[in-house]
Amino acid sequence: MKRIKFTLQDSRNRLLFLGGLILFMFIAVAIKLLWIQIVSGTELGKRATIQVTDKIKRHTPRGRIVDRNGEELAVSIMVHSLYVNPDEMNKSAKPGKEKTEYRDIPRIAAQKLAPVLNISEKALYEDFTLKGQFVWVKRMLEPKDYEQVVKIIKENKLPGLHFVAESKRYYTKKSMAAQVLGFVGTDDSGLSGLELALDSILKGAEMRQTKMVDAMGRTIADQDTDLEENREKIQVATVYLTIDSKMQFVIEDALDDAMKRTNAAAAAVLIMDPHTGAILAMGSRPTFDPNHFGKYPAVNWLNRAISIIYEPGSVFKPIVGTMGLSEGIVTPDTPINDTGSIRIADRVISNWDGSGMGMCKFEDIIKYSINTGMVQLGMKLGAQREIEWAKRYGFGTATGIELPSEEDGILYDPKNMYEPDIATLAIGQGIAVTPLQELRAICAIANGGELLRPYIIDRIVAPNGEVIRKGKKQVVRNVIKPEVAAQMRTMMEKVVSEGGGKTARIKGYRIAGKTGTAQKIAEQGGYAPGKYIASFVGFVPADKPQYAMLVMLDTPRGAFYGSQVSAPIFRDTLQQILVAKGIQPSNSEGLPSFEAHVKPGQRVETPKSLPALKQKGNNWIVPDFSGFDARAITGELQKGNLVLEPYGSGKAYKQKPSGGTEVQPGTKIEIWFR
């Protein structure tokens, strides 16, 4: 066998080849490292960060909603939401190489947390044993519940449970103005009311919480902290409403009382400034607590002041009356023959009691709500003019208030109206309106003829104090002449002082109003037997209107006439408001005194003399008013240009600020009566 000889040159060649190969590999590795570090470094760094971080979307707190005086109605705070990483929890439960004792962590966690979270142990255990790295356990824990959960996690060394900071909405007055405010979902999106309408303005900024995690998705070390603790909070605009929370409280209390007394199926109350269109109070029943909106049926969320339509009945008569006055068909003194009933084609229309008054003035037609007289006026107006005037008053079209789900109402096409339709429209039948549309039309009579666009947002203020949106008076059109409005105001005042609206009288004040009782439309068509809409609409004082109010009760049981059930609500509500706002009575009768509330035979000891305000420089020292009634106190407070905010009726027993306190002119003095 021939032997192969290796020369020194061969060894050198092999060594050179091996060295070249090593050098080539070194250069290749160096180039690759340079490529990774310099060319692809940024992109690969991002990938690495993504692999070891976890991001959860959330929002900063929503903007506040407050009343016209800055009293908070809806606020948001940051709370904690609990989630579980099932992979982390179950991985930790298994014994490792050191054969440590097995702990059924999902079972322990479920047992310990179930009572605190108010979730069944079974449901929690199922969530804890799922596959994956993120499952919500409970969103938006109350602070006390959060503290208990943190304690349980630490004491029992429960891995896989983590928190995320989220914004939670709180409605400070619970159910007050619930339909106006609306509510938000767990994703901080507005779902109804102003929360929906102003969602883009109120919604907090979207943020993402970033956490360091290992390959299993487990949070590393103590990185489970809230960004809110380390980041300046982002502020959002504040929405000021035109609503006065004191007035709102009064109407809500009146609504609750009315629902109990009348067993009505539903109700709505509105108070509006007749000269600006600002909504001062808006209430609806049935209601709900927006803090827990899911516990109530969806029908309770409905804002009946703007989202239901109904035949207005006799409260529509003043509007038709101004049509006749404007067209020159009637004057307040025009004689009209009331025979108790009238036949129009195949329809007989009667007065509410079936009786007639014979020849009477048109102002008596309004005063006593005589159907036959209104029908005669309607027939002279005709279909075309009735509908044209109704449209001028804004019926058939939404008012444009800044609330969602407002209805347009329903108007006839004059071409499709036959004689009974023309006749019944004049008494408020055959037309469907919302409570807000009806009140707005009456406000046009109260203010001298201007049809206004109602508004409920007074202003929106940016975090830096800049007013980014301002509510203001908007005149849609001039509907009637001032002299026509004045004539109808006089007639409506007589409705309360002499006619069918006497139950709305407030001693000492001039009240203008109109009662209404209309059959309720059945779902299948026609009218529902025995079901009525009872309403009252009016304004005060009649000569210089400051507040216009509408009360609507849907299907009251027992007494159902507007004069029986709705007018007293108007009276009792506005009486409190007039006293609270320091609006003086028009005559010497003044406000009802404490003695009017004393039961027969009840002995009352009254203080001898009312304590007087004492002036100190430009300020005043408030005395202790215990034992005196609202009428006496109001007169004394006005001497120092102070405003009474009353609660209840009867004798004063508590006040704020207390007696002996120095206050500035214009200060509100809150006093509780019983």
UniProtKB/TrEMBL annotation:
<dbReference type="InterPro" id="IPR005311">
    <property type="entry name" value="PBP_dimer"/>
</dbReference>
<dbReference type="InterPro" id="IPR012338">
    <property type="entry name" value="Beta-lactam/transpept-like"/>
</dbReference>
<dbReference type="InterPro" id="IPR005543">
    <property type="entry name" value="PASTA_dom"/>
</dbReference>
<comment type="similarity">
    <text>Belongs to the transpeptidase family.</text>
</comment>
<keyword id="KW-0472">Membrane</keyword>
<dbReference type="InterPro" id="IPR036138">
    <property type="entry name" value="PBP_dimer_sf"/>
</dbReference>
<dbReference type="GO" id="GO:0008658">
    <property type="term" value="F:penicillin binding"/>
</dbReference>
<dbReference type="Pfam" id="PF03717">
    <property type="entry name" value="PBP_dimer"/>
</dbReference>
<dbReference type="Pfam" id="PF00905">
    <property type="entry name" value="Transpeptidase"/>
</dbReference>
<dbReference type="InterPro" id="IPR050515">
    <property type="entry name" value="Beta-lactam/transpept"/>
</dbReference>
<feature type="transmembrane region" description="Helical">
    <location>
        <begin position="15"/>
        <end position="36"/>
    </location>
</feature>
<feature type="domain" description="PASTA">
    <location>
        <begin position="616"/>
        <end position="674"/>
    </location>
</feature>
<dbReference type="GO" id="GO:0071555">
    <property type="term" value="P:cell wall organization"/>
</dbReference>
<keyword id="KW-0812">Transmembrane</keyword>
<keyword id="KW-1133">Transmembrane helix</keyword>
<dbReference type="InterPro" id="IPR001460">
    <property type="entry name" value="PCN-bd_Tpept"/>
</dbReference>
<keyword id="KW-0132">Cell division</keyword>
<dbReference type="GO" id="GO:0005886">
    <property type="term" value="C:plasma membrane"/>
</dbReference>
<keyword id="KW-0131">Cell cycle</keyword>
<protein>
    <submittedName>
        <fullName>Cell division protein FtsI (Penicillin-binding protein 3)</fullName>
    </submittedName>
</protein>
<dbReference type="GO" id="GO:0051301">
    <property type="term" value="P:cell division"/>
</dbReference>
<dbReference type="Pfam" id="PF03793">
    <property type="entry name" value="PASTA"/>
</dbReference>
